[in-house]
Amino acid sequence: MTTRAAVLLRRPEDPRPPTFLELLFDVVFVLAFVQLSQMLVEDLSWSGGVKMLMLLLPLSVAFAGIARAGTRFDPRRLPIQLLVLGTMLGTLGMASATPKAFGERGLYFAGAYVVIQIGGSVVLVCLLRGHEAQRIEVRRVFWYSVSAVPWIIGGLAQGWARVALWALAVTVDYAAAALRLPTPGLGRASAAEFELSGEHLELSGEHLADRYRQLFIIGLGELVLVTGLTFDSSGFRANQGAAVVAAFATTALLWRIYIYRAGELMAEAMTPAPRPVRVRPVVDTHLIMVAGIIAIAVGYKLVIEHPLGHTQPAWIAVILGGPALFLAGRALFEYAVFGHVSWTWAIGVLVLAAISPAMFVLPPLGVATAAALVLAGVAVADTVRGPRRRPQPARAG
């Protein structure tokens, strides 16, 4: 191991909480989530939802890269700080281009993503010269270079050709990680190498849990921000005030449903063994929950602007679909933490689906209130059924 690489790596005795720089990096995602919700408002259709998700996925990859770097490397070291700041600048470019990513700014979005992914991995390859962990970064350079082709070509394409090419690029990024980055000349990374990149790069469940709790809080912050800004522009009338109260109640319920037991025990679930196997499922479930929160924010923007009157079908889809997506993600999150899923989440999703036909006769505020009541019922039922058993011990990989 080279001295330079050894200095950059976290030691077992190093503090694990996120640093101020990592929290500063998170601020960019407030903008990113607000931009995604605005994009969905402007194209409230199934195709708009697909496009929103397609942009959320690469943004989440950028977040995961910094979460991984902060876990394995010492963020107090200048090279790692510069890496975080460079990724933050690139992510800011992605977030800024998001509203018109499927228009004239597609190449800006794709180019920023490709630069931070390939550039970040190349930097780590250089910094880890001579260390066994260098191989995993070489693999990442290879696969990010492969996915860069459809990303860049898609940025130059138009219409559904861009959607198809970017869908291919996202698939390559996620499939390569799922297959442990099989690379010509290096083969497929072992489970130990892929998860830990060597014995001195131990993943900290506590640190990763804090990072993804923070991502969830950013999602709730986006909901609060959209609520406040929409209320400000709507004139502070009584009907809008009632919608704001419903939005605040929903925010509080989302927090309660997330944090009760599973959110509290996430770190324990991710570090019960030297090679935790639940890291990736926990990460993916947060992406689903955040997507649900973005949809909820879009729903409340519409409700605050138009609390009474006719409720359009697309509005019902986001007002009820957002909570349903959140509950589905929360169910998978519970499975990742406890190894089983409660009936509470499934019933909540089924109730939301069952009441949707009746929502056509209610005003938007009535639909939002119904969704909030379903969430309240889920939260109460979850509390009544009592504490879960401790997370199941993870198997060594």
Give a written overview of the molecule.
- The chain has two domains: 182 residues, no CATH class; 180 residues, I/LWEQ domain.
- The protein is 74% helix and 0% strand.
- The protein is built from 15 helices and no strands.
- Helix 3 runs antiparallel to helix 4, helix 9 packs antiparallel against helix 10 and helix 13 packs parallel to helix 15.
- The radius of gyration is 21 Å and the shape is globular.
- 47% of the residues are buried.
- The C terminus is likely disordered.
How many alpha or pi helices? 15
Strand element count:
0
Unreliable spans: 196-202, 272-277, 393-397
The fraction of residues in strands falls at under 5%
Whole-number mean pLDDT: 85
Which range best describes the helical content: under 10%, 10-25%, 25-40%, 40-55%, 55-70% or over 70%?
over 70%
Structure at a glance:
The protein is an all-alpha fold. The chain is 74% helix and 0% strand.
Question: Can you give keywords for this protein?
Answer:
397 residues; mainly alpha; I/LWEQ domain; 2 domains; 15 helices; 0% strand; disordered C terminus
How are the elements arranged and paired?
Blueprint: H1 3-8, H2 20-42, H3 46-72, H4 78-97, H5 106-127, H6 134-156, H7 159-178, H8 191-196, H9 205-234, H10 238-263, H11 266-270, H12 279-305, H13 313-338, H14 343-355, H15 364-384
